[in-house]
Amino acid sequence: MGRGWNLKEANVVCRNLDCGSAVSVVEREESSVRPVWVITSNCVQSGSSLSDCARSVSSSFIMNLTCSDFVRLVDGTSLCSGRLEVKSDQSNQWWSSVCEDDFDQQDAEVVCRELGCGAPSVLQGALYGEVEAPMWTKEFQCGGHESALLDCRSSGSARNTCSPGKAVGLTCSESVRLVGGDSRCAGTLELKHGDWRPVIGSGWTLKEATVVCRNLDCGSAVSVVEREESSDRPVWWIYSNCVQSGSSLRECARSYSSSYFLTLTCSG
């Protein structure tokens, strides 16, 4: 089990397993206690190996991780941006970038969905650099509704060449929204990270709230208020210092149960 784990720590595991990028990390409770390894998030973030971070305890909680396996975005500013790479051969386990001529907006919608991110916002060749010309040799033919890129049809004909500087660079948006307010720029902050849940934050100020407002194209934050409901429900807990570090909200989120949630008002 992990303490304080979010997608950043889960991504270390996915990369170690050559399984693409982390899509979700959930703490699950079993019916009985058993021996487990506790691994704290700050130990993983320090660069130590998982084995160096592990200590033995007994617990009924375990971690469930989901990795993207076939696709990943590399060298971007978050798990939802970067140069697109696909696993070229499921048995040989090597990765290849994709030529922008073989990839369109509908393909991008599928990749963003598969990675658990929001809709594609930027699709541009060479946006995140490349060391060599893309090597993936087939064109994806997605309808845009598929849940994974591997479900899409691809052309049978192979592309012989693709010039350097033509690798697909992709940025997916954050899946955030404000609900229950007078406009789309005010209300309870919700984040989609597997499912839609309200957000509760530790130490949030107008600085963190403005990140959300700008993601929604709603200007700057006017107010951020913590409200309480009558009972606990599943929420996403997001620390302010994680948002301040430049990480995406999704990367900062960890599963929690609380009767508190945040409401935001943006300038709109």
Notes on the structure:
There is one protein chain. This protein is α+β, with helices and mostly antiparallel strands and 268 residues long. The protein has three domains: 2-67, no CATH class; 71-172, Mac-2 Binding Protein (Roll), CATH 3.10.250.10; 176-266, Mac-2 Binding Protein (Roll). 18% of the residues lie in helices and 44% in strands. It is built from seven helices and 15 strands. The chain has helices spanning 7-16, 41-45, 50-53, 105-114, 206-215, 240-244, 249-252, and strands at residues 2-3, 22-40, 55-67, 71-75, 81-87, 95-97, 120-125, 140-141, 153-154, 168-172, 176-180, 186-193, 195-202, 221-239, 254-266. The strands form four sheets. Strands 4, 5, 6, 7 and 10 form a five-stranded antiparallel beta sheet that branches. Strands 11, 12, 13, 14 and 15 form a five-stranded mixed beta sheet that branches. Helix 1 links the parallel strand 1 (2-3) and strand 2. The longest helix is centred in the N-terminal third of the chain and has 10 residues, at 7-16. The mean pLDDT is 86.
